[in-house]
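Risk register update: the risk of archive-format incompatibility is retired. Evidence:
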Amino acid sequence: MNKAKRIVDNMDSENAFAVCSEIGIIDENATPLKQARYINELLNTTESMKIYMTDTMRKCGGCCLSTNAIKIAKKLYAKSNDIAEFLNLLNEADIGGRNLHIFDGKIIAIYKKCYCNIPKKVENMNKKYCECSAGWYMRLFSEVFEKSVTVTIVDTIVNGASECVFEISDYV
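Archived output:
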């Protein structure tokens, strides 16, 4: 599915109408470049209109996680003796960026590169876009642990950092 359209479809209908009235509607067959530009404009517009997008972006990020990855993660968790072992197995299975570890009671997830093609296509991508990755982790760990987890964005490449860092807490 068109990622830009998915974001609009996941917005509250009143807010989606307000934003689309301002910036237009994205074509279903838009190229990835057009989608990236539209998403950036959408996020910048919602910011100026004081429309909260964190939940919408996180929901969209959860949609990018395959059910197969969740199945594999659940199997790995079931055979793990503890969280550290589980994270090592996820790293070996290449689920979650290959750099998951425990620090100070929190799961730390680090991306050395941006895995999404959308922010790479435009300059100055709105930082809210990274809530998508937070949503990906939120869905993964909430499904595996069968409870809601908290995901905090520490820093991201889109922010200008050399790597993306997320903290996952409240999983116990």
